[in-house]
Known about the structure:
Layout: H1 5-21, H2 26-31, H3 33-59, H4 65-76, H5 80-99, H6 105-124, H7 126-133, H8 140-158, H9 161-178, H10 189-201, H11 205-211, H12 217-247, H13 253-279, H14 287-296, H15 299-314, E1 321-324, H16 346-355, E2 359-362
Parallel strand pairs: 1-2
Amino acid sequence: LPGTCGEWITISSVFSFLCIQTVAFQSDSFYWYNGSMYYTGFFAVTLFFLGTLLRYLYNGKKILMLPLLLFAIFLGGGNYVSLLPCMLFVVTVTFLLLLQRNKKTYVCGITSAVLLLSFAVSAMAPGNQVRQDGMWKIPAWKAIAKCLLQGVRYTFAWTGLWWLLAALLLLPVFLRILQKKNWGFFSHPLLFTGYSYGLFCSMSCPLFYTMNSTGPGRAVAIVYYTFLLISFAVFFYWLGYIVRKLRMRQNTPEKMAVLGKLKIARYVAMTVLLAVILFTGVWQETSAAKAIRMLTNGEAAAYAAEYEERLLLLNDPEITDVVLTPFIHQPAMIYTGDLPGDPEDPTSKKTAQYFGKNSIYVDYSN
């Protein structure tokens, strides 16, 4: 967007606040390695990839082809939740450039091919084949129908107080950026909204196809991040469409007076939203509030103490068969689960192998 550095920092700060503070699954998203790296981490790399692609479309520097291809290979072996919308977007961009006979089609086409090929290699990998055989698959058409319906549920669930407050905060920033934008771009709001919604819903498709569900919290978290990006992109586009229509008419003193009233209404609405967030206790569900509460009430310290006691047993060379007691303190924000109670369970056996023990399991009988 043709905005200033200050506008970029403002928008990025609002997005970062929402992503960190209002995501529902902090434990899966931040404090568990698989969730934080394989899902949130790969999603972050996806954003770098798309940012590089958009930069190439903006300046046309072919040197960007190298990072694009490296990103494409890396992401092709990643999680399919963030990969599928990424592939759809890149293929769409390539197709539109091809229709325009744009010279940038060549680089985008190669990037699309590498991304699709990397995905095919990942999908056909023996390990993934074994895992897929154990999943509960449903027909592709049913998975698509379910993800389109789930998109509606997500939209109603996530367009809440925090989203509305962020929209009001970003409104003047978006309007400033729109003053510098090409107005012809905002002529197809329904088409843009429909495509954006399809792109968003595509994230749930791999989950419904393989698991017939919305998936674990770590997967839903990156769907939420994408919802924020896409919903505010649609909000920005509709603002551009409305401003474009208004600019077709000449400004009058009456219209300027209306704009002044809208500015006052925005401040009133922000005040009301903040009051509702404070007095209803919605702010207590933010990541910061949960972290502070967990640290001040001693729950985190107690959990850490139990963990250290376990490590003493696991690292004691004289104990070959380790029987652990369940965690008494299980703070929801950082507790991600425990070992099973069966020493023959694959997880118990692998953990025992890692620590050089004969067996390890948790005794849940007491």
